[in-house]
Each structure stands twice: as C-alpha cells, then as structure tokens.
C-alpha cells in the first residue's frame, strides 16, 4: 500500500469504525430525506450594503433529521464522499431557483443576488452548467439573479474545465464568487484570468480583525486585491458593530453575518426584505 495507504488505513483503524458506521447511517437517512423530499430546506442569510440595505442572500442548506438539525458541515462531506452530493446538489439548484421565482415580486427595483453554494464534485459533473441553466430557464429567472459560490480549491483543480463551465454559465448571466477567500492559495495572475464577480472574505479573518493585526492586514490586502481586479468584496461572519466599522474603514462594500441576521426560512426573509423597503 503506497498511494492508497492512507485510505486503506482509514477503514481499519478500530476507533474509526463507529464514525464510519455513523457516516453510513447518515448517508442512508439523507438519501431517504431526498427521496421523500422531507426535512431539507434552504434558509436565506441576507447580505447588506454599507447603507444597511439588503442586496442579496446566501442560501444555506438545513436538514432536520428525527427532530434534530444536522449541521451542513457534517452532512455535506458525507454526501460528497458517498456521491449523494449529485442528487443533493440537484435538489439545491432546483429549490434555489424555485425560491428565486417566489421572491420576484419582492425584488422589483432592487439590486439583488441569490447565492448558491456549489461543492467541488457537484461542479465537476459533465452537465453541471446545463442543469443550472435549465433550472434558471424553467423558473424564468432574470439574468444576474443567480450567483454561484465556488471555493479556491475547486477553481485551481482543473482550470480548463472550470473556465469553460464558468464561461457557459456567465453567458446566461450567472455570477460567480469565491467562497472562504484567503484560506486557499490562488495567485493574483490566476484570479485575473477567471470570469469572477466577487470575493467573500473568509470569516476566520473577519472574526479576529480587531485583536489580530495579521488578520486585519489580510482583510485590507484582500479588499485592495479585489479593487485591483475590479471585483466586489463581501465580508462574512460579521458579528459586531466594531468589526463592521473596521471593515467599512478598510473599504469593504458588502456585509453578511449575525450582526445583521441569522439565516432565515423564506417567509421570514421576505418579511425582512419588505421592512427593509419601507424604511
Ligand atoms: P459557508 O458557505 O462558508 O457558509 C457560512 C457559514 O457561516 C454558514 O454556516 C452560516 O450559517 C454561518 N454564519 C453566518 N454568519 C455568521 C456569523 O456571523 N458568525 C458565525 N460564527 N457564523 C456565521 P452553515 O449554514 O452551518 O453552513 C456551513 C457550511 O456548509 C457552509 O459554509 C458551506 O460550506 C456548507 N453548505 C451549506 N449549505 C450548502 C449547500 O446548499 N451546498 C453546499 N455544497 N454546501 C453548503
Ligand atoms: Ca458559502
Ligand atoms: Ca464562507
Ligand atoms: Ca486569527
């Protein structure tokens, strides 16, 4: 065992067995949830401008299993490993576009983007672009509404495939952001060659920006890099006013985090949108 040594070990270390069994159990239950279309829901976390106006939302998947919410950080990796991510990803895209259609009346005269998280394996499917475009068309969504959040790792993995998919989608008005920006290792030259619209500053930098001067420098560097590349920049994980104030002083344009709102079910998000309009 050379190349596959680590994988093989993973299955035979005794302490791992419980967790493997748990993962298989989770996979089975998640498959059941998808088949019954039960317990899965997309929540919306609003994104704000400097003037505190809602300018978008990120869709975050929630799974309620036997009365308990399983965190996506736990079940998404299981879905990725098992291949269930294809079915789950299709469900997310379809539900996202359905939500987009239901929001249309609330979005008149408003700049707004609806961001979908895309996992690497999901993006690598041959017909990924076609699937997304078909869902957008079926729901008659306007150009520019749908944004896809990709990670740095995904972007640098198979550049030709990445670029051709991005270009096909972009032609129909799909926008792209890089999620968790700063945690990977993409170069400036490389970023410049991709059809991107936005960088999302990872929350690990945002969190400690007031106490960790290294993180503060990183955030400033990312914002100025975005400016150079003519990309929008949004900070996620904004939890306090002082952090928001720092970000504004660093020229960040968009904000998302518990300071503003937790992720909300569609109906609550709509109420928020309409209050926002009435202000
Ligand atoms: P992410 O894409 O980086 O999403 C941001 C996470 O931070 C979300 O966790 C969100 O609820 C949380 N968050 C938002 N504001 C704050 C804040 O102010 N402070 C803190 N501490 N956290 C905040 P969530 O919903 O548990 O999702 C975790 C991860 O699961 C996501 O990280 C994403 O990688 C993945 N995920 C969620 N939904 C989907 C999906 O539909 N598809 C895929 N492929 N992945 C998803
Ligand atoms: Ca995200
Ligand atoms: Ca993120
Ligand atoms: Ca830190």
Automatic annotation (TrEMBL):
EAL domain: residues covered: 23-277
The protein's name: EAL domain-containing protein
Native source organism of the sequence: Congregibacter brevis
Residues of the full protein shown: 370 to 648 of 651
């Amino acid at each position: 065992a050379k190349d596959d040594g680590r994988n093989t070990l993973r299955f035979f270390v005794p302490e791992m067995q419980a967790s493997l069994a748990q993962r298989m159990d989770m996979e089975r239950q998640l498959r059941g949830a998808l088949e019954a279309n039960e317990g899965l829901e997309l929540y919306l976390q609003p994104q704000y401008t400097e003037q505190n106006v809602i300018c978008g939302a990120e869709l975050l998947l929630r799974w309620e299993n036997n009365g308990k919410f399983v965190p996506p950080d736990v079940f998404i990796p299981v879905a990725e490993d098992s291949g269930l991510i294809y079915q789950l990803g299709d469900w997310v895209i379809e539900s996202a576009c359905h939500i987009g259609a239901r929001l249309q009346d609330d979005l008149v005269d408003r700049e707004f983007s609806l961001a979908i998280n895309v996992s690497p394996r999901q993006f690598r499917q041959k017909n990924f672009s076609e699937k997304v475009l078909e869902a957008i068309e079926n729901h008659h969504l306007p150009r520019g509404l749908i944004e896809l959040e990709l990670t740095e790792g995904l972007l640098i993995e198979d550049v030709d495939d990445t670029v051709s998919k991005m270009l096909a989608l972009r032609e129909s008005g799909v926008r792209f952001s890089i999620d968790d920006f700063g945690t990977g290792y993409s170069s400036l030259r490389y970023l410049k060659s991709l059809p991107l619209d936005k960088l999302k500053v990872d929350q690990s930098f945002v969190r400690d920006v007031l106490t960790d001067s290294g993180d503060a420098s990183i955030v400033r560097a990312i914002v100025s890099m975005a400016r150079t590349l003519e990309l929008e920049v949004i900070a996620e994980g904004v939890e306090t006013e002082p952090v928001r104030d720092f970000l504004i002083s660093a020229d960040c344009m968009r904000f998302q985090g518990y300071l503003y709102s937790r992720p909300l079910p569609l109906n609550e998000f709509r109420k928020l949108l309409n209050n926002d309009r009435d202000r």
